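Look over this record as teaching material.
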Amino acid sequence: MPSSRTPHDRATDGRVRIWPVVSSFVAETSRRLPRGWAHLAFQFAIWMGFYVAYQVARGAADRDVAVAFANGEWILRTQQELGALFEPTVQRFVDSSSLMVTLTSYTYWLSQFAVVGLTLLWVYFKHHERFAGFRNWLIVANLVGLVGYILVPTAPPRMFPEWGFVDTLAQYSSVNHDSGLIAWGSNPYAAMPSLHSMDALIVGIVMFGVVRSKLAKALWLAWPAWVGFCVISTGNHYWLDVVAGFVLALVTGYALSRVRTLRLRRA
């Protein structure tokens, strides 16, 4: 006998069956949130607001081309005098392997936003007591780095082909510094310090301290070195930029730890 139920009735039954599942998922997720949905949304607002403002400010920072190239040449000559101008050799080694080009290019694009964002989210859920310190360290260090970009605009190695450098991303990647929003929001003369390397060291230190397995600890310990290698091999930073980024991470981390210590003493 044909069913007398209408399509509307069947659709309603479907919604009735699905709704308890959705409600259960939302309730379970809420129980897992350390401080509720509002707090998580607030953290997203803080980070996304900071990141958008940071990118706009970075893109609008001093773009004095002559000064930027002069500073870049000064770094090159300084490294040459030290007998440590090895970046072109590193680039030639990486460019000889399509696999290495792919790995270093993806690392360059993903390390500063995707990896940082995912690790922040992971720490928020798994080690919430460490989240605020992690977030604040990243924000403060990046703000100080932005001041460095304004005071010392520096052309990156990829802009000096006469020194043997290659713009790896422009040659081998479909996404480069001239692509759409990247060109609008980036400052091409923001080489010193390397904030990719700075963020990688901050992420590496925090994650090393919270993960449990020895393999995970080893991987996060190696993460800053790998990112430093990638930004050098893609022609985006000098090794001095990488060192400056590492130093900036350590200095800001120490300063924030001192501030926390003083607050605890006064409490």
